[in-house]
Amino acid sequence: MKMRIRRTAYFLFAISAIYLFSLCAHPVSPGGGLKDTEPPIVVKAVPENYSTNFDQKSIIVTFNEFVKLNKLQQQLLISPPTNELPEIKLKGKSIHIKFLEDLKPETTYSVYFGDAIVDLTEGNPIAGYTYVFSTGSILDSMSITGQVVNAFDLKPSVETFVMLYLDDNDTIPLDSLPYFVRPYYISRTNKQGTFRLQNLRNEQYKLFAINDMNSNFLFDLPGEAIAFSDSLISPEFVKPVAQDTLKTADSLVVVARDSLANIAGGLMPEKKEDSLIKLTKSSKYLYLFSQVDSTQKLLRAELTKAGMLTFAFRFPASDIEVESLYPVPDSFQVMKYYNKNADSLYWYFSQQVLDSLNIHITKDSTINDTVSLSLIPRAKPTAKKASKLVENVNSLRYSSSAKYRKLDLNKYLDLKFEEPVVWYQMRDSNRFINNKDTIYNQVAFTKMDSLGLNYRMSATFEAGGSYDLSIPDSVFVGFSGKWNDTILMNFKVPTLEDYGNLVIDIQIDSAETMIVQLLNTKDLVLAENQLHKSEIVHFNTLNPGKYKIKVIQDRNKNGRWDSGNYAGKIQPERVNIFPKELEIRANWDLEEEWDLKGKFK
Question: Among 15, 62, 427, 518, which is 20 to 30 Å from 344 by CA?
Fold first, then answer.
């Protein structure tokens, strides 16, 4: 009996020991307590980070805890790039980096991990970890900082590759290198669009930025955006760090933070707030743009809604022939209309005559397309519950320039219809109440375009006035036979005191032509003026709210912003945005000054 109890005790002890060993062998998150927010710490690197005379095939970096690699393919950068990416494996608490090719002699290399190295339990990253070494006797210590912004709106271009090229290719011209050759040095912009390229040779470089869609470090896809420097640039000298510091330095070189904590790779306390890359007078600014394909092209042909086809083109298309490929019945009537920019053509057609149509689109020898289009709208999904309001299928829908029962001062009352109006006749039951004075049978509208999509009321409206309008049904008849229901509108016109005015004194160089735009907070252009000299620009009767001012350098004087072209060495037209948001208040004039002399060189 005692022997049986003793054996049972040994068995339970063995099971407990195996269980405890399994807990120790497999790292797991500790239960309870505060959440771990600290990144892993580098405790050792072999060879040491910032080593010289590097002649190894592999590197081992060891941390104070278990780590994993998160999105390594998107994060890893090597400068100069190797033809083949190194083999990177995790072993315990270490990362093993094995090079699969011979490295260049007398060259400083940077292996940048970005935020790919994170702890196993919470995913806390070591921000901008970089391992640096030289195959020669010295570490290159030159640097280039800068910022990449989108050329059209100056917003930071995030995670864009920044590349440096040396003029050392005997067969390919320097300007053609981005098409065929991987760069000598590479970096990536941060959330502010800023970048740093470090450990550079003291030579002149061609500087590029590319939105590399296929991650091959080449400018080889039509949709890839590019920015480039007009001339060769030189890096600036960075004071070398003392050798004893290099032995513990295990972070940041390319696209990095400025804190000592990052340079020490976590061996020093790290700041919680992000440190920005400091830009100086010698920093480089690049303006990213997408090249415009100059070839005219049909972008889209579709049935937009019942009774309307849309043909969208890349450029104005008034000289393009769009016709039915085969004869159509006389009952199939078509009304054609181009939009304001003439890059979209709309066909309003008779419904229930044809089920489909073959369209032939031609222009000289550049366009010869045939498209087959269904003329039957797709059935809308049925609602679970029937609506109490039954829509009149014969109702001609419209929109009005009086929004939210308000018609802006000095504006006309316009009606915009969903389809061309082919018949208009005002009936004698119309009524117009002007500040409580009722007027009968004196309402009239004027057709504002050749197709009859827009009609304007022949009346003016006073500041502070209150108006009611009644238009009987069937006054407007559309192309498809629809007619308007009774139109009942009431609205007010604000007083002059309800608005604010913006007065801005803009100083420009005498030889410049500028486009000055007033934008809302969604970057929608509300008004614009052209400037040929320094002058005071007025934007009057503005609704209270926040606005922005944008100026475009109109180099070719065509009245719009134009993108660049790398093959033609043409930079995009420069823009500038007023440095602060402008708040307009009612019954208030806001006056500002903006000196732009020398800002577009």
Answer: 518
Q: In whole angstroms, give the CA distance from residue 155 to residue 148.
A: 9
In CATH terms, 298-374 corresponds, of 3.20.20, 1.10.357, 2.60.40, 3.40.190, to 2.60.40
- CATH architecture for segment(s) 498-595: Sandwich (2.60)
- As a whole number of Å, the end-to-end CA separation of the chain is 99
The CA–CA distances, whole Å, from 15 to 8, 11, 18, 22, 115 equal 11, 6, 5, 11, 41
Q: Do domains 42-134 and 398-494 have the same CATH topology?
A: yes
As a whole number of angstroms, the distance between CA 261 and CA 284 comes to: 26
User: What count of residues does the chain have?
Assistant: 601
The CATH number of 42-134 is which of 1.20.120.10, 2.60.40.1220, 3.30.450.30, 3.40.630.30? 2.60.40.1220
118 is written with which tokens?
Answer: 């994170």
Give the angle subtended at the CA of 485 by the CAs of 484 and 487, to the nearest 5°. Answer: 95
| Distance, CA of 111 to CA of 105 (rounded, Å) | 16
pTM of the model: 0.76
pLDDT digit string, tens, across residues 476-519: 999 999 999 999 999 999 999 999 999 999 999 988 899 999 99
What six digits make up the tokens of 165? Answer: 């090229």
Residue 179's SS3 state is helix
pLDDT digits (tens, 9 = 90+) for 325-381: 999 999 999 999 999 889 999 999 999 999 999 999 998 877 889 999 999 988 766
Residue identified by tokens 């090597």 is 78
Q: Would residue 341 be called left, alpha or beta, if left means φ above 0 and alpha means ψ between -120 and 50 degrees? A: alpha
How far are the Cα atoms of 6, 7, 8, 375 from residue 1, in angstroms, in the given order? 9, 10, 11, 93
